[in-house]
């Protein structure tokens, strides 16, 4: 991936918990926000869901990409617990970039819906803590609003 300097306003936008959420976006916007994450003091993760063909594989992909602790239970409750307790990877905020989510969405629509629900709850949890938690899906995800950053 080509290194792209962060958009001037991307760092400031990331720092606003009220703006944080789950969005679909273009590769360009995702890249700008992903690279702005460390400049905002955030941990930034890029997750390729190409291998997430079912719930079990999704949990494996997420646990590796997010560096979950050994006690991670590879189920929905454990995912919710880990995403709301990032004590092993503390930061001022978080940016998670999801690519090829359509693979999991098509393979397991109910699981994808559950994942989106957990991510929404996670964003709300961190917002209540005064921190930003961003999840960016590259591409068109009908269930999500779009976010574009002009670089």
From TrEMBL:
InterPro entries per the UniProt record, alphabetical: Barstar, Barstar-like_sf
Source species, domain of life: Bacteria
SUPFAM superfamilies linked to this entry: Barstar-related
Residue ranges constituting the Barstar (barnase inhibitor) domain according to the UniProt record: 45-137
Family: Belongs to the barstar family.
Name listed for the protein in its UniProt record: Barstar family protein
